[in-house]
Amino acid sequence: MIDRKVIITGVPGVGKTTVVNGALKKLREEGVEYQSINFGTFMFEVAKNDNIVKDRDEMRSLDRSVQKRLQQRAGQAIAQISGNVLIDTHASVKTPKGYLAGLPEWVLREIMPDTIVLVETDDDQILMRRMTDETRTRDREGSRSIAEHQQFNRSIAAAYAMMTGCTIKIITNADFLLDRASADLADVLR
Ligand code: AP5
Predict the structure, then answer these.
(1) Which residue has the least CA distance to atom 29 on ligand 1?
(2) CA-CA distance, 20 to 185, in Å (whole number)?
(3) Which end of the chain offers a freer environment for a tag, N or C, measured as fewer CB atoms within 10 Å?
(4) How many CA atoms lie within 13 A of 82 on its CB side?
(5) Where are the beta strands (DSSP E) in 43-144?
(6) How many angstroms does the Cα of residue 184 sit away from the middle of ligand 1?
């Protein structure tokens, strides 16, 4: 099989990491291996070493030029990884100064994904998941604002498809239907 690069995105709290873990478990049982990479972790390691931030949720508020530099370094490092790779990241990041493209041209050119997955669910479900997740410092915003972010992500994903020729897959991760979402992602990765 030719090595594949798949990018998975979704607004914070939609549950993309949970869906990824479920899909990779299913695939491992079938002997299909993917290396799972978190883009934010690559950025955070650089930011931490440079003493810029103490936790990953602070990165969204950094100056745009600093976030761009961190993105570029993460993109270059991830591009060196061979084999099937699944990259957990964001189509766009909500910063105090507006939406920042998560996969600008200089990152996409390095990675050249086969598919970009958008994980979505109802805005009020995302709101509840953020409120009950005590492990993170989630942005406080209403469901209308979450809806706007999900809509923006669809729009920017269309631009990414135009730039790279990749496919865009939308997966719904609804309450009580996590298994369905993981199975849908496994189908994309097989
Ligand atoms: P990152 O770590 O990717 O942040 P995140 O969006 O908060 O992602 P998580 O890993 O927490 O995943 P998730 O919120 O989708 O879901 P989870 O599985 O935890 O990135 C950190 C930072 O890095 C970003 O803020 C940004 O600054 C930076 N960054 C990253 N990529 C970037 C890029 N390309 N450019 C610029 N900056 C970038 O689940 C959430 C909750 O929901 C859990 O409690 C879970 O139990 C629950 N849940 C999940 N599924 C279900 C379900 N079906 N039913 C009920 N509950 C569910």
Answers:
(1) 40
(2) 7
(3) N
(4) 2
(5) 85-88, 92-95, 98-101, 115-120
(6) 18
Summary count for the chain: helices (H), strands (E): 7, 7
Q: What residues pair up with 156 in beta bridges, in sequence order?
A: none
Q: End-to-end alpha-carbon separation of the chain, Å?
A: 10
Q: Which amino acid makes up residue 5?
A: K
| CA-closest candidate to residue 74, choices 90, 61, 63 | 90
How many other C-beta atoms lie within 10 A of the C-beta of residue 125?
18
pTM exceeds 0.70 for this model:
yes
Neighbours of 159 (CB within 10 A): 14
Count Cβ atoms within 10 A of the Cβ of residue 101 and give its class: 0-12 exposed, 13-18 middle, 19 or more buried. middle
pLDDT tens-digit map of 15-30: 999 999 999 999 999 9
Q: Does the beta carbon of 153 sit less than 6 angstroms from any atom of ligand 1?
A: no
Taking the alpha carbons of 82, 88, 89, 90 in that order, is the dihedral positive or negative?
positive
Tokens standing for residue 50: 């440079």
